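User: Okay, second chain of the day. Same drill as before: sequence in, C-alpha cells out.
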Amino acid sequence: MDNSSGVGVLDKAALVLSALESGPATLAGLVGATGLARPTAHRLAVALEHHRMVARDMQGRFILGPRLSELAAAAGEDRLLATAGPVLTHLRDITGESAQLYRRQGDMRICVAAAERLSGLRDTVPVGSTLTMKAGSSAQILMAWEEPERLHRGLQGARFTATALSGVRRRGWAQSIGEREPGVASVSAPVRGPSNRVVAAVSVSGPIERLTRHPGRMHAQAVIDAAGRLSEALRRTG
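Assistant: Same drill. C-alpha cells below.
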C-alpha cells in the first residue's frame, strides 16, 4: 500500500513518529527504521521536538512527546461528548429523571452534558455548571478510584466517608440522598477510558419523593448500563 500523501515532509515526519511507536530510538536507530538520510531524520526529529510531538529520555534518545497524549485525550473527550447526547437522552427516557455527565476539574466537577426531564419537578443542572467534589453521588464516583493520597486529601470536609467509597468501589455505583442539595437524590456510575481509568460519571437525579431514600434500587442498573455504553465508545478507536 502506498503511504504517500503527496506532501513529502509530512510523510517523512509520520515515518519518524511511527518509528518511535515501538520505543526510544537513537538518531542511528531512527535512520535505520525510517530509511531517511541522517541529516533529514535529525532535522525532522528536532522540529517535532519543538512542537512537543517528540521528546528525549534520560539517555538522550528520541521518544514520543507529551503533545500526542494531549491530542489523544482531546480526541477521547470529543468522542465522549459526541456519544453522550443520545445515551443521556435514553437514560432520561427510561428512568423519567434528569441525566447528567460530569468530569473532574481540579477540586470541582463540571457538568459537560445533560438531558433534562421534560416536565414536572426536576433537578436541573445546566451544562457548564461547576459543583463541589465534597458531596453528591457523581463526586463519590470521581473520587472513589483516585490514588490513595489524593483520595484521603479529597475526603477532608466531604459529606461521604472512606468506608462509603469502599462500598462504591465494591458495588460499581454510588447514591446520595440530600447530600448535595436538600430534597434531591441521585445515582451515579463510572465511565472508564481505554486504560480503565475513571474519566467521567453518569448520573440521574431528582426529588427524593420520586427516587425514594434508596434511589440505587430503582436506577443503579440503568445508570451502569449508560456508563458502560459511554465506556465502550471510548474504547473504540477511529
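The chain has two domains: 8-74, 79-236.

User: Thanks, on to the next one.
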